[in-house]
Amino acid sequence: MAIINLDTAKSYKIKDADYGSFIGYKVTPGAAAGSTPGSEVTTPAFVAVAANDAPVAVTSNITGSLNVNGVLTGHYTYSDYEGDLESGSVFEWDTASTSGGTYAPISETSISHQITMDEQGVYFKFSVTPKAATGTTTGLKDTSTYIGPANSKPKASGVHIAGTPSVGSTLKGRYTYSDVNSDAQGTSLYQWYKDGNPISGAIDTVYTLTIFDVDKTITFKV
Q: Which long-range contacts (CB under 8 A, 24 or more apart) does 114-119 make?
């Protein structure tokens, strides 16, 4: 039986090096007055030290922008009963087409993920598998609640030009705006073209034809 140096308190925290050992406790009672100290007493049974506890990760809510090109960030807290330091924890991002659907992993393995065009309308979850530098190195994977859906970009449909194609006439660019997230139209961008080349300064929904537009193909883009 060996004495654990400097551990003279009523409690003792198990260390990695204690695995496979048996831990007991001995007390020598002392009185404030009279005859002291009393006879030392040792625990009748020693406790076998079990294997090192695995590290634990607890995820919290994902934060960030749900717009296309927006960055989402996963969050978690790491802990280890024996105090083993974190090293090499594994991150995973999963997506699904509905909030309660089947989530499948994507290629992202960092703590943050940038939403792509292909991920419009999808939902996201973040998972982490904690890993420690020493002791029992791998803990159980923990997964966050979902965030989503990713915001979809607005669409312009039915784009056409109204007006008379003659010098001095004003042409009007027409289109229908839609957004699946019901976002109101903001500052849309316009451009008029002549034979496929942008017309300088023609960046409104209207364009007045000039003599230089005769026999040219005029198009409108939104």
A: 114/69, 114/70, 114/71, 114/72, 115/65, 115/66, 115/67, 115/68, 115/69, 115/70, 115/71, 115/72, 115/150, 116/68, 116/69, 117/68, 117/153, 119/68, 119/95, 119/150
